[in-house]
Write a structure and sequence with these properties.
Elements (H helix, E strand, L loop, with lengths): L2 H20 L4 E4 L4 H13 L3 E6 L6 H10 L4 E3 L5 H8 L9 H7 L7 E3 L16 E3 L4 E3 L2 H15 L22 E3 L7 H11 L6 H4 L15 H10 L1 H20 L11 H10 L3 H16 L3
Helix pairs in contact: 1-2, 2-7, 10-11
The chain binds iron/sulfur cluster.
Length: about 300
């Protein structure tokens, strides 16, 4: 077995005791159905650790992905949000954007609070992820690749949580380093390359992957995710027209909500379709209008 796989197994086995102090179900494994979370799921199985895998539905999931998970991973627990994606958009009064990615924060990232959560984050995925570490705690409370540093931090926090009572039982069952909405995150496959991922799925555990990869999709997140590239958004528009219609409807609702509240309608001279096109372009509204709307008026000017 490759060294990089063995390291992941070691990480999982060493931290299992800690995970069990937070939940008798063990690790909370965040499963997305994508290739990385498949690797995470299967390496956790190989490590023989206790875990419960969860998939967070958002309501705008790729239907093929949901079918793949149901068929191939029936033991993965489906978590449904308290508020649908569309209800959340209305509450936030705006469509999510790359910089205001509130939907992930609320619909996905809150899951697993108070547990030791496993994710399939890999440094090779992006520049942003290249700065991530093996051991992390939410709200940037801790981040490091060193297991020893993590242990030190945990002990320090646990002492604080017992109100400096040096005579308190220093047992993992009573002394905890995180509370409330925080969670310890462990990224066991952080150092895997793309090649490691495909080698592991195809040659080590020999499992199927979601058909969307074979159709040229690279990110299997939600449909019309603001993190998708413009090219991907255009492809979604062509291939998932029902979801586009849902976006057009929410745009109308957002507009009507603003009018009902007596607030200015930023999209006053735009149809829902135009707002959608602007949103997919990822451009500033004024720039998009200057390039598209005014151009349109010019085209209709009498000669
Ligand atoms: S994957 Fe994209 S659309 Fe889905 S919840 Fe996260 S940011 Fe929002």
């Amino acid at each position: 077995m490759k060294e990089v796989y063995q390291r992941s197994i070691d990480i999982l086995q060493k931290s299992e005791k800690l995970a069990l102090t937070y939940s008798d179900k063990g690790y909370f494994l965040a499963f997305s159905g994508g290739k990385d979370s498949q690797c995470l799921y299967h390496i956790a199985k190989l490590a023989g650790v206790r875990f419960e895998a969860h998939y967070s539905h958002t309501g705008i999931d790729h239907p093929e992905l949901v079918r793949f998970i149901r068929r191939n991973y029936p033991d993965v627990i489906s978590d449904y949000p308290e508020m649908t994606f569309w209800q959340l958009v209305r509450k936030k009064r705006m469509l999510p954007t790359k910089l205001m990615r509130y939907c992930c924060e609320i619909l996905k990232e809150t899951k697993g609070a108070g547990t030791v959560t496993l994710t399939g984050v890999r440094r090779a995925e992006s520049v942003k992820r290249s700065k991530r570490n093996t051991y992390e705690v939410t709200r940037h409370l801790f981040s490091s690749d060193s297991e020893n540093d993590f242990e030190e931090w945990r002990k320090e926090q646990s002492t604080k949580n017992t109100n400096q009572d040096q005579f308190a039982e220093q047992s993992e069952s009573v002394v905890r380093c995180i509370n409330g909405k925080d969670k310890i995150i462990i990224n066991p496959i952080i150092d895997w390359s793309d090649e490691d991922v495909w080698d592991f799925l195809n040659n080590v555990v020999k499992v199927e992957h979601c058909e969307l990869y074979d159709k040229g999709w690279h990110r299997l997140g939600c449909l019309f995710c603001p993190m998708a590239s413009i090219r991907e958004l255009r492809r979604m528009e062509a291939e998932y027209p029902k979801y586009k219609d849902a976006y057009l409807r929410i745009i109308e609702r957002l507009r009507n909500d603003r009018i009902a509240q007596g607030k200015p309608d930023y999209w006053t001279d735009m149809s829902a379709e135009e707002v959608f096109q602007w949103w997919c372009s990822k451009e500033k509204l004024a720039k998009w209008k200057a390039e598209n709307k005014q151009q349109l008026y010019l085209d209709f000017e009498p000669h």
